Amino acid sequence: MPRLVLTVIGDDRSGLVEALANVVTAHGGNWERSQMAELAGKFAGIVVVSVPAERADELTGSLRELDGLLDVAAHPGADEPLAAPAVEHNTLTIDLVGNDHPGIVHDVSAVLARHGLSIVTIETTTRDAPMAGGRLFEAHVVVRVPQGAEISQIRGDLERLATELLVDLDVSEQ
């Protein structure tokens, strides 16, 4: 069964998920996985749906009915869930907290890319700093580490960066 990756965004209000789910269900689709959140007054997310091959074009066309409520784009996904990789991977979880300033995500992602790490998930937020004023930046990142990668070098580079950025960092291996 073909799988579609839907990207969605709209002004946050109740009923958005239901409206999308109605269209998916009406075309024999199955909602497999999603990540959605309210961000800056918008509701945004990604959804993986499977749909019978003969109804995929019909479903994609019907998503236009949501215009004005949600902007939805459909992208072809892998027809079958990807098999587990033959090579075993470690996972690192990186938690970072510090004063917010431009460039933190860029700097952290540059270190990860230099080591050939793949981001599985990344969640970031800012919030008011208690007592001191200003804003705090928080990130929770899960990365896939290929077998043979030197965890101590990765950890060392991240710790050097944390010192430069003046942020607290916790790196744990899974």
From TrEMBL:
CDD domains: ACT_GcvR_2 (cd04869). Residues 93-172 form the ACT domain. InterPro entries: ACT-like_dom_sf, ACT_dom, GcvR, UPF0237/GcvR_regulator. Signal peptide: none annotated. Coiled coil: none annotated. Pfam families: ACT, ACT_6. PANTHER family: UPF0237 PROTEIN MJ1558. This is ACT domain-containing protein. It comes from Intrasporangium calvum.
